[in-house]
Amino acid sequence: MRxxxxxxxWAVVLxxxxxxxxxxxxxxxxxxxxxxxxxxxxxxxxxxxxxxxxWEEAITAYKKAVALKPDYAEAHFGxxxxxxxxxxxxxxDDHIEAMARxxxxxxAFESAVALKPDYAEAYCYMGDCYRFYLDCKRDPPYDEGxxxxxxxxxGGAAYKKxxALKPDYxRAYYGMAHFCGSLERITIYKKIVAIKPDxxxxxxxxxxxxxxxxxxxxxxxxxxxxxxQDDATAYFYMGKAYENIEQYPEAIVAYKKYIxxxxxxxxxGVASERIEELSTxxxxx
Length: 285
What we know:
0% strand, Serine Threonine Protein Phosphatase 5, Tetratricopeptide repeat, mainly alpha, 79% helix
């Protein structure tokens, strides 16, 4: 009798399990649709928190979205972007916390590209996280140990991937330049102006790179290009370049044009000092 009761009990259990299995299969689509809708609602909530600069609340909502829908690449990206912004906000006051946010951002962007391998924006912002993480590492008391060089390698690789996926991605080119030497940066800035000929910032940065190489005449040429594209701040750097090749009258003219910008001329005090000194300076024979 006991054996019959046990057998009957197991039959009930197996029947229940079978029926549950059938029910879960039939209900799966409805459940997944409900969870996807809930995930999208959390995503929208996170976006609203982001717009209102409520970082922690945005992170919480993004986490709820990916908990319901783990393959939600856009939610992983959103979370990474908020961590990136949090890191930027902390850099002046707390490098340790800023670095922690950048690491979390990198992890979120890695999840995004694992789900969506052609996600160029995620690669680009991953590179940004590495870039600013390195900026934290460069300041005392942090040293350039293995972690620094690994971050440098991974950051450059992330930007390269973004550019490979989106060859006209100007932001990624600018980011990539931070991982390159002067000559490579010049090549990158030339690619940017080939994509967007009126990109004044690229001409300005190209001038900086030429200056680092001691190619002051080339720097002047591209500073003029920046000015043609309405970046009059290049007058200040043009003045410095003219000084470097001892063309002092031209330097004075450039500095005066810079000062004429008025309140936007951040270095106007320096420019005035240079004009005063150069007015009594004769070029070397």
